[in-house]
Design a protein that fits this description.
This protein is α/β, with parallel strands linked by helices. The chain has three domains: 113 residues, Immunoglobulin-like (Sandwich), CATH 2.60.40; 33 residues, no CATH class; 270 residues, 3-Layer(aba) Sandwich (Aminopeptidase), CATH 3.40.630.40. It is built from 15 helices and 15 strands. Strands 11-10-12-15-13-14 form a six-stranded mixed β-sheet, sandwiched between helices. Helix 3 crosses helix 5 and helix 12 packs across helix 14. The structure holds zinc ion. The site of zinc ion has 6 residues, from loops.
Protein backbone atom coordinates (compact mmCIF):
# COMPACT_ATOMS: atom_id res chain seq x y z
CA UNK A 1 0.00 0.00 0.00
CA UNK A 2 2.66 2.42 1.08
CA UNK A 3 4.75 1.70 -2.01
CA UNK A 4 1.72 2.25 -4.17
CA UNK A 5 0.91 5.61 -2.68
CA UNK A 6 4.54 6.69 -2.96
CA UNK A 7 4.46 5.70 -6.62
CA UNK A 8 1.19 7.59 -7.06
CA UNK A 9 2.72 10.68 -5.55
CA UNK A 10 5.67 10.38 -7.94
CA UNK A 11 3.30 9.97 -10.88
CA UNK A 12 1.29 13.02 -9.87
CA UNK A 13 4.51 15.01 -9.42
CA UNK A 14 5.64 13.86 -12.87
CA UNK A 15 2.35 14.86 -14.45
CA UNK A 16 2.51 18.24 -12.79
CA UNK A 17 6.03 18.66 -14.10
CA UNK A 18 4.92 17.87 -17.64
CA UNK A 19 1.98 20.29 -17.32
CA UNK A 20 4.30 22.96 -15.97
CA UNK A 21 6.85 22.39 -18.73
CA UNK A 22 4.25 22.49 -21.48
CA UNK A 23 2.84 25.63 -19.83
CA UNK A 24 6.27 27.23 -20.05
CA UNK A 25 6.68 26.09 -23.65
CA UNK A 26 3.33 27.72 -24.50
CA UNK A 27 4.25 30.93 -22.77
CA UNK A 28 7.49 31.32 -24.70
CA UNK A 29 6.68 30.99 -28.35
CA UNK A 30 9.93 31.54 -30.13
CA UNK A 31 10.26 32.29 -33.84
CA UNK A 32 12.98 29.97 -35.18
CA UNK A 33 13.23 31.38 -38.72
CA UNK A 34 12.01 34.29 -40.84
CA UNK A 35 12.04 34.59 -44.61
CA UNK A 36 11.06 37.33 -47.07
CA UNK A 37 10.26 36.65 -50.75
CA UNK A 38 9.80 39.93 -52.62
CA UNK A 39 8.24 39.85 -56.11
CA UNK A 40 6.05 41.92 -58.42
CA UNK A 41 3.30 39.27 -58.09
CA UNK A 42 3.27 39.49 -54.30
CA UNK A 43 5.68 39.73 -51.39
CA UNK A 44 5.61 36.96 -48.81
CA UNK A 45 6.85 37.08 -45.21
CA UNK A 46 7.14 33.71 -43.44
CA UNK A 47 7.60 33.22 -39.70
CA UNK A 48 8.47 29.70 -38.56
CA UNK A 49 8.14 28.19 -35.06
CA UNK A 50 8.03 24.81 -33.33
CA UNK A 51 4.33 25.31 -32.48
CA UNK A 52 1.31 27.07 -34.03
CA UNK A 53 1.64 30.87 -33.91
CA UNK A 54 -1.32 32.54 -32.17
CA UNK A 55 -1.74 35.93 -33.82
CA UNK A 56 -4.06 38.76 -34.82
CA UNK A 57 -3.74 41.30 -37.64
CA UNK A 58 -5.16 44.75 -38.31
CA UNK A 59 -4.76 47.10 -41.29
CA UNK A 60 -4.18 50.79 -40.68
CA UNK A 61 -4.27 53.77 -43.06
CA UNK A 62 -2.39 57.11 -43.32
CA UNK A 63 0.23 55.84 -43.64
CA UNK A 64 -0.66 52.35 -44.91
CA UNK A 65 0.56 49.64 -42.52
CA UNK A 66 -0.21 46.18 -41.16
CA UNK A 67 0.02 45.40 -37.46
CA UNK A 68 0.46 41.77 -36.42
CA UNK A 69 0.43 40.78 -32.76
CA UNK A 70 2.05 37.48 -31.79
CA UNK A 71 0.61 36.09 -28.56
CA UNK A 72 2.82 34.63 -25.82
CA UNK A 73 5.87 35.27 -27.91
CA UNK A 74 9.29 36.62 -27.15
CA UNK A 75 11.62 38.53 -29.44
CA UNK A 76 14.12 35.97 -30.70
CA UNK A 77 17.22 37.00 -32.68
CA UNK A 78 15.59 35.39 -35.74
CA UNK A 79 12.47 37.56 -35.37
CA UNK A 80 14.62 40.65 -34.82
CA UNK A 81 16.53 39.90 -38.04
CA UNK A 82 13.31 40.22 -40.08
CA UNK A 83 13.73 44.01 -40.33
CA UNK A 84 17.12 43.60 -42.05
CA UNK A 85 15.69 41.19 -44.61
CA UNK A 86 13.45 43.80 -46.26
CA UNK A 87 15.13 44.98 -49.45
CA UNK A 88 14.93 48.68 -50.35
CA UNK A 89 13.44 47.74 -53.75
CA UNK A 90 10.70 45.53 -52.29
CA UNK A 91 7.63 46.41 -54.41
CA UNK A 92 5.29 46.74 -51.43
CA UNK A 93 7.10 46.90 -48.08
CA UNK A 94 8.92 50.02 -46.88
CA UNK A 95 10.15 48.53 -43.60
CA UNK A 96 9.29 46.12 -40.78
CA UNK A 97 9.50 47.02 -37.09
CA UNK A 98 9.48 44.45 -34.27
CA UNK A 99 8.92 45.32 -30.61
CA UNK A 100 7.36 44.28 -27.29
CA UNK A 101 3.82 45.64 -27.27
CA UNK A 102 2.84 44.45 -23.79
CA UNK A 103 3.92 41.52 -21.58
CA UNK A 104 3.68 38.33 -23.66
CA UNK A 105 2.70 40.13 -26.89
CA UNK A 106 5.21 40.90 -29.61
CA UNK A 107 4.09 43.43 -32.23
CA UNK A 108 5.28 43.32 -35.83
CA UNK A 109 4.51 46.49 -37.83
CA UNK A 110 4.81 46.29 -41.63
CA UNK A 111 5.07 49.78 -43.16
CA UNK A 112 3.80 49.72 -46.74
CA UNK A 113 4.66 51.66 -49.88
CA UNK A 114 1.09 51.66 -51.21
CA UNK A 115 -2.39 50.29 -50.65
CA UNK A 116 -2.32 46.49 -50.77
CA UNK A 117 -4.45 43.38 -50.19
CA UNK A 118 -3.07 41.17 -47.40
CA UNK A 119 -3.62 37.43 -46.77
CA UNK A 120 -2.50 35.86 -43.51
CA UNK A 121 -2.69 32.15 -42.80
CA UNK A 122 -1.02 29.31 -40.91
CA UNK A 123 0.53 26.21 -42.41
CA UNK A 124 1.09 22.90 -40.61
CA UNK A 125 4.56 21.31 -40.79
CA UNK A 126 5.46 20.22 -44.37
CA UNK A 127 8.68 19.17 -46.08
CA UNK A 128 11.60 20.66 -44.15
CA UNK A 129 9.41 23.21 -42.41
CA UNK A 130 7.79 23.41 -38.96
CA UNK A 131 4.68 25.48 -38.19
CA UNK A 132 4.53 28.59 -40.37
CA UNK A 133 2.66 31.87 -40.23
CA UNK A 134 2.50 33.33 -43.73
CA UNK A 135 1.72 36.93 -44.66
CA UNK A 136 1.17 37.49 -48.39
CA UNK A 137 1.01 41.09 -49.61
CA UNK A 138 -0.78 41.38 -52.96
CA UNK A 139 -1.05 44.44 -55.20
CA UNK A 140 -4.55 45.75 -55.85
CA UNK A 141 -3.96 45.36 -59.60
CA UNK A 142 -2.67 42.20 -61.30
CA UNK A 143 0.87 43.09 -62.52
CA UNK A 144 0.67 40.60 -65.41
CA UNK A 145 -2.45 42.24 -66.87
CA UNK A 146 -0.96 45.71 -66.38
CA UNK A 147 2.16 44.53 -68.21
CA UNK A 148 0.19 43.15 -71.15
CA UNK A 149 -1.88 46.33 -71.43
CA UNK A 150 1.22 48.51 -71.49
CA UNK A 151 3.02 46.32 -74.00
CA UNK A 152 0.32 45.49 -76.50
CA UNK A 153 -2.11 48.33 -75.99
CA UNK A 154 -5.69 47.77 -74.85
CA UNK A 155 -6.82 46.41 -78.25
CA UNK A 156 -4.89 43.16 -78.15
CA UNK A 157 -5.07 42.62 -74.41
CA UNK A 158 -7.35 39.68 -73.59
CA UNK A 159 -10.73 41.18 -72.82
CA UNK A 160 -12.65 38.09 -71.71
CA UNK A 161 -11.27 38.02 -68.20
CA UNK A 162 -10.92 41.76 -67.57
CA UNK A 163 -12.52 43.01 -64.42
CA UNK A 164 -13.13 46.70 -63.64
CA UNK A 165 -10.41 46.42 -60.98
CA UNK A 166 -7.85 45.23 -63.54
CA UNK A 167 -8.89 47.87 -66.08
CA UNK A 168 -8.25 50.78 -63.72
CA UNK A 169 -4.81 52.35 -63.68
CA UNK A 170 -4.01 53.72 -60.27
CA UNK A 171 -0.49 55.04 -59.54
CA UNK A 172 0.76 51.89 -57.72
CA UNK A 173 -0.37 49.77 -60.70
CA UNK A 174 1.78 51.81 -63.06
CA UNK A 175 4.77 51.39 -60.78
CA UNK A 176 4.22 47.62 -60.66
CA UNK A 177 3.83 47.36 -64.41
CA UNK A 178 7.11 49.18 -64.90
CA UNK A 179 8.83 46.79 -62.54
CA UNK A 180 7.27 43.84 -64.31
CA UNK A 181 8.36 45.13 -67.69
CA UNK A 182 11.87 45.76 -66.41
CA UNK A 183 11.95 42.19 -65.13
CA UNK A 184 10.73 40.79 -68.45
CA UNK A 185 12.82 42.57 -71.08
CA UNK A 186 15.31 40.18 -72.64
CA UNK A 187 18.27 42.50 -71.89
CA UNK A 188 17.65 41.98 -68.18
CA UNK A 189 18.41 38.27 -68.44
CA UNK A 190 21.55 37.20 -66.57
CA UNK A 191 23.34 36.02 -69.70
CA UNK A 192 26.66 37.06 -71.21
CA UNK A 193 25.91 38.44 -74.71
CA UNK A 194 29.06 36.90 -76.18
CA UNK A 195 28.12 33.39 -75.05
CA UNK A 196 24.55 33.90 -76.26
CA UNK A 197 25.64 34.87 -79.76
CA UNK A 198 28.08 31.99 -80.05
CA UNK A 199 25.46 29.53 -78.89
CA UNK A 200 22.81 31.06 -81.11
CA UNK A 201 25.04 30.46 -84.16
CA UNK A 202 25.53 26.85 -83.13
CA UNK A 203 21.83 26.39 -82.49
CA UNK A 204 20.84 27.72 -85.96
CA UNK A 205 23.17 25.17 -87.54
CA UNK A 206 21.33 22.41 -85.78
CA UNK A 207 17.71 23.52 -86.00
CA UNK A 208 16.23 21.92 -89.09
CA UNK A 209 12.58 22.66 -88.35
CA UNK A 210 11.09 25.40 -90.54
CA UNK A 211 10.43 28.66 -88.76
CA UNK A 212 6.83 28.93 -87.67
CA UNK A 213 5.07 31.53 -89.87
CA UNK A 214 1.43 31.53 -88.80
CA UNK A 215 -0.32 34.01 -86.48
CA UNK A 216 1.34 35.31 -83.30
CA UNK A 217 1.32 32.50 -80.75
CA UNK A 218 1.87 32.83 -77.01
CA UNK A 219 3.84 30.21 -75.10
CA UNK A 220 3.47 30.14 -71.32
CA UNK A 221 6.68 28.87 -69.72
CA UNK A 222 6.36 27.72 -66.14
CA UNK A 223 9.57 27.43 -64.08
CA UNK A 224 8.71 24.79 -61.46
CA UNK A 225 8.75 25.54 -57.69
CA UNK A 226 10.18 28.81 -56.25
CA UNK A 227 10.37 30.77 -53.01
CA UNK A 228 9.33 28.68 -50.00
CA UNK A 229 9.34 25.58 -52.20
CA UNK A 230 12.90 24.77 -53.37
CA UNK A 231 11.83 21.62 -55.27
CA UNK A 232 14.34 18.78 -55.37
CA UNK A 233 17.83 19.33 -53.92
CA UNK A 234 20.87 17.86 -55.67
CA UNK A 235 23.75 16.05 -53.97
CA UNK A 236 25.91 19.16 -54.42
CA UNK A 237 23.14 21.31 -52.97
CA UNK A 238 21.75 22.88 -56.14
CA UNK A 239 18.06 23.66 -55.96
CA UNK A 240 15.53 22.66 -58.60
CA UNK A 241 13.80 26.08 -58.39
CA UNK A 242 16.97 27.93 -59.51
CA UNK A 243 17.71 25.57 -62.41
CA UNK A 244 14.12 25.63 -63.70
CA UNK A 245 14.14 29.46 -63.68
CA UNK A 246 17.47 29.67 -65.56
CA UNK A 247 16.32 27.27 -68.28
CA UNK A 248 12.90 28.97 -68.53
CA UNK A 249 14.50 32.43 -68.92
CA UNK A 250 16.75 31.11 -71.69
CA UNK A 251 13.77 29.50 -73.42
CA UNK A 252 11.80 32.76 -73.20
CA UNK A 253 14.70 34.72 -74.76
CA UNK A 254 14.92 32.22 -77.62
CA UNK A 255 11.16 32.19 -78.24
CA UNK A 256 10.95 35.99 -78.22
CA UNK A 257 13.52 36.09 -81.05
CA UNK A 258 11.27 33.94 -83.26
CA UNK A 259 8.91 35.68 -85.66
CA UNK A 260 5.26 35.37 -84.56
CA UNK A 261 6.10 33.82 -81.20
CA UNK A 262 6.17 35.37 -77.78
CA UNK A 263 6.67 33.86 -74.34
CA UNK A 264 5.51 34.75 -70.87
CA UNK A 265 6.97 33.33 -67.68
CA UNK A 266 4.57 32.31 -64.93
CA UNK A 267 7.24 33.49 -62.47
CA UNK A 268 10.36 35.53 -63.14
CA UNK A 269 11.96 35.54 -59.72
CA UNK A 270 12.48 33.46 -56.60
CA UNK A 271 9.00 33.31 -55.14
CA UNK A 272 6.34 30.66 -54.71
CA UNK A 273 3.39 30.41 -57.06
CA UNK A 274 0.50 28.00 -56.33
CA UNK A 275 -0.11 25.37 -59.01
CA UNK A 276 -3.52 26.68 -60.04
CA UNK A 277 -2.19 30.26 -60.31
CA UNK A 278 0.32 29.02 -62.88
CA UNK A 279 -2.52 27.57 -64.99
CA UNK A 280 -4.62 30.71 -64.48
CA UNK A 281 -1.82 32.96 -65.70
CA UNK A 282 -1.51 30.95 -68.90
CA UNK A 283 -5.26 31.19 -69.46
CA UNK A 284 -5.33 34.93 -68.77
CA UNK A 285 -2.88 35.61 -71.60
CA UNK A 286 -4.71 33.05 -73.78
CA UNK A 287 -1.56 31.02 -74.17
CA UNK A 288 -1.44 28.53 -77.05
CA UNK A 289 0.89 26.17 -75.17
CA UNK A 290 1.92 25.65 -71.55
CA UNK A 291 5.34 24.22 -70.75
CA UNK A 292 6.31 23.47 -67.15
CA UNK A 293 10.05 23.04 -66.55
CA UNK A 294 11.36 20.76 -63.79
CA UNK A 295 14.37 18.69 -62.77
CA UNK A 296 13.75 15.17 -61.57
CA UNK A 297 14.86 13.54 -58.34
CA UNK A 298 14.80 9.95 -57.23
CA UNK A 299 16.08 7.99 -54.26
CA UNK A 300 18.48 6.05 -56.50
CA UNK A 301 21.37 8.29 -57.57
CA UNK A 302 21.81 6.25 -60.78
CA UNK A 303 18.43 7.32 -62.18
CA UNK A 304 19.02 9.64 -65.17
CA UNK A 305 17.63 10.98 -68.42
CA UNK A 306 15.02 13.44 -69.66
CA UNK A 307 11.29 12.79 -69.63
CA UNK A 308 8.13 14.56 -70.76
CA UNK A 309 4.73 14.21 -69.09
CA UNK A 310 1.15 15.05 -70.03
CA UNK A 311 -2.04 14.96 -68.00
CA UNK A 312 -3.94 11.73 -67.63
CA UNK A 313 -7.69 11.75 -67.12
CA UNK A 314 -7.58 8.22 -65.80
CA UNK A 315 -4.69 6.46 -64.09
CA UNK A 316 -0.97 7.07 -64.43
CA UNK A 317 0.86 5.26 -67.25
CA UNK A 318 3.52 3.93 -64.84
CA UNK A 319 4.24 3.71 -61.13
CA UNK A 320 7.06 6.20 -61.60
CA UNK A 321 4.75 8.69 -63.34
CA UNK A 322 2.31 8.40 -60.43
CA UNK A 323 5.13 8.84 -57.88
CA UNK A 324 6.40 11.90 -59.71
CA UNK A 325 2.97 13.53 -60.07
CA UNK A 326 2.39 13.07 -56.33
CA UNK A 327 5.75 14.65 -55.58
CA UNK A 328 5.21 17.62 -57.92
CA UNK A 329 1.67 18.13 -56.59
CA UNK A 330 3.07 18.40 -53.04
CA UNK A 331 4.48 21.78 -54.10
CA UNK A 332 1.36 23.55 -52.80
CA UNK A 333 1.77 21.97 -49.35
CA UNK A 334 5.42 22.95 -49.08
CA UNK A 335 5.14 26.31 -50.84
CA UNK A 336 2.04 27.18 -48.84
CA UNK A 337 -1.32 28.17 -50.33
CA UNK A 338 -4.01 30.20 -48.60
CA UNK A 339 -7.44 28.62 -48.98
CA UNK A 340 -8.83 32.01 -50.04
CA UNK A 341 -6.62 32.06 -53.13
CA UNK A 342 -8.13 28.86 -54.54
CA UNK A 343 -10.17 29.78 -57.57
CA UNK A 344 -13.71 28.34 -57.60
CA UNK A 345 -14.08 29.16 -61.31
CA UNK A 346 -11.09 27.04 -62.21
CA UNK A 347 -12.25 24.18 -60.00
CA UNK A 348 -15.63 24.19 -61.76
CA UNK A 349 -14.07 24.29 -65.21
CA UNK A 350 -11.93 21.31 -64.34
CA UNK A 351 -14.98 19.31 -63.33
CA UNK A 352 -17.11 20.33 -66.30
CA UNK A 353 -14.87 19.96 -69.29
CA UNK A 354 -13.58 16.83 -70.86
CA UNK A 355 -9.90 17.29 -71.49
CA UNK A 356 -9.49 14.50 -74.02
CA UNK A 357 -8.95 16.79 -77.02
CA UNK A 358 -6.35 18.87 -75.20
CA UNK A 359 -4.58 15.79 -73.90
CA UNK A 360 -4.23 14.45 -77.46
CA UNK A 361 -2.56 17.71 -78.50
CA UNK A 362 -0.42 17.65 -75.35
CA UNK A 363 0.81 14.17 -76.29
CA UNK A 364 1.73 15.34 -79.81
CA UNK A 365 3.58 18.35 -78.40
CA UNK A 366 5.27 16.17 -75.79
CA UNK A 367 6.45 13.65 -78.37
CA UNK A 368 7.90 16.45 -80.54
CA UNK A 369 9.79 17.92 -77.57
CA UNK A 370 10.95 14.50 -76.39
CA UNK A 371 12.36 13.76 -79.85
CA UNK A 372 14.57 16.86 -79.72
CA UNK A 373 15.59 16.33 -76.08
CA UNK A 374 16.84 12.92 -77.21
CA UNK A 375 19.46 14.72 -79.30
CA UNK A 376 21.16 16.21 -76.24
CA UNK A 377 20.42 13.77 -73.43
CA UNK A 378 19.55 10.16 -72.79
CA UNK A 379 15.78 9.70 -72.54
CA UNK A 380 14.45 8.27 -69.28
CA UNK A 381 11.46 6.84 -71.19
CA UNK A 382 11.06 6.75 -74.98
CA UNK A 383 7.51 8.09 -74.98
CA UNK A 384 5.43 10.73 -73.20
CA UNK A 385 4.15 9.49 -69.86
CA UNK A 386 0.88 10.50 -68.24
CA UNK A 387 -0.31 11.11 -64.67
CA UNK A 388 -2.50 13.51 -62.68
CA UNK A 389 -0.23 16.57 -62.59
CA UNK A 390 -2.19 19.52 -61.14
CA UNK A 391 -0.18 22.04 -63.15
CA UNK A 392 -1.25 20.49 -66.49
CA UNK A 393 -4.98 20.95 -65.90
CA UNK A 394 -5.79 23.86 -68.23
CA UNK A 395 -8.79 22.44 -70.08
CA UNK A 396 -8.05 24.33 -73.30
CA UNK A 397 -4.25 24.66 -73.55
CA UNK A 398 -1.99 21.80 -74.67
CA UNK A 399 0.28 21.41 -71.64
CA UNK A 400 3.40 19.39 -70.92
CA UNK A 401 5.77 19.01 -68.00
CA UNK A 402 9.44 18.56 -68.95
CA UNK A 403 11.69 16.82 -66.43
CA UNK A 404 14.90 18.13 -68.00
CA UNK A 405 17.24 15.70 -66.19
CA UNK A 406 17.80 14.17 -62.75
CA UNK A 407 19.17 16.70 -60.24
CA UNK A 408 19.68 13.71 -57.90
CA UNK A 409 22.20 12.24 -60.35
CA UNK A 410 25.60 13.90 -59.66
CA UNK A 411 26.63 13.92 -63.34
CA UNK A 412 23.33 15.38 -64.54
CA UNK A 413 23.27 17.87 -61.65
CA UNK A 414 26.61 19.22 -62.85
CA UNK A 415 25.31 19.63 -66.40
CA UNK A 416 22.03 21.22 -65.26
CA UNK A 417 24.11 24.00 -63.65
CA UNK A 418 26.07 24.65 -66.85
CA UNK A 419 24.67 27.71 -68.73
CA UNK A 420 25.73 26.21 -72.09
CA UNK A 421 23.80 23.01 -71.36
CA UNK A 422 20.82 25.05 -70.09
CA UNK A 423 20.85 26.94 -73.40
CA UNK A 424 20.90 23.69 -75.38
CA UNK A 425 18.07 22.30 -73.26
CA UNK A 426 15.98 25.40 -74.04
CA UNK A 427 16.88 25.17 -77.76
CA UNK A 428 15.69 21.53 -77.87
CA UNK A 429 12.37 22.46 -76.29
CA UNK A 430 11.94 25.30 -78.82
CA UNK A 431 12.73 22.91 -81.70
CA UNK A 432 10.04 20.58 -80.36
CA UNK A 433 7.52 23.47 -80.19
CA UNK A 434 8.27 24.44 -83.81
CA UNK A 435 7.95 20.85 -84.95
CA UNK A 436 4.58 20.60 -83.21
CA UNK A 437 3.30 23.80 -84.88
CA UNK A 438 4.54 22.73 -88.30
CA UNK A 439 2.12 19.77 -88.28
CA UNK A 440 -0.54 21.29 -85.95
CA UNK A 441 -0.97 24.94 -86.99
CA UNK A 442 -2.84 26.89 -84.31
CA UNK A 443 -6.45 27.86 -84.94
CA UNK A 444 -7.25 31.51 -85.39
CA UNK A 445 -8.36 33.11 -82.13
CA UNK A 446 -11.96 33.56 -83.34
CA UNK A 447 -12.22 29.90 -84.38
CA UNK A 448 -10.78 28.92 -81.03
CA UNK A 449 -13.48 30.94 -79.27
CA UNK A 450 -16.16 29.30 -81.45
CA UNK A 451 -14.91 25.81 -80.75
CA UNK A 452 -14.76 26.66 -77.05
CA UNK A 453 -18.39 27.70 -77.01
CA UNK A 454 -19.42 24.74 -79.15
CA UNK A 455 -18.03 22.22 -76.64
ZN1 LIG B 1 9.66 19.69 -59.82
Amino acid sequence: MRLFSARNILTIAGLLGILLLSGIANAALSITATRVWPAADYTRITLEATQPIVHSMIMLKDPERLVIDLQQADISPELKSLSEKIQPDDPYIRQVRVGNFKPGVVRVVVDLKSEIRPEIFQLPPAGEYQHRLVLDIYPLVDPLMALLQQRDGLQTAPSLEMTPEIASTSPPATANAEQAIAANIPQALPQAPAITDKLADKATDKVIDKPYDGRMVTIAIDPGHGGEDPGAIGARGSREKDITLSIAQKLKAQIDKEPNMRAILTRDGDYFLPLNSRVQKARKVQADLFISIHADAFTRREANGSSVFALSERGATSAFARYLAQKENESDLIGGVSINVKDPHLARTLLDLSQTATINDSLKLGQAVLGHLGEINRLHKPRVEQAGFAVLKAPDIPSILVETAFISNPEEEKRLNDPVYQYKMAASILSGIKKYFSSNPPLSKSRMAESRFAD
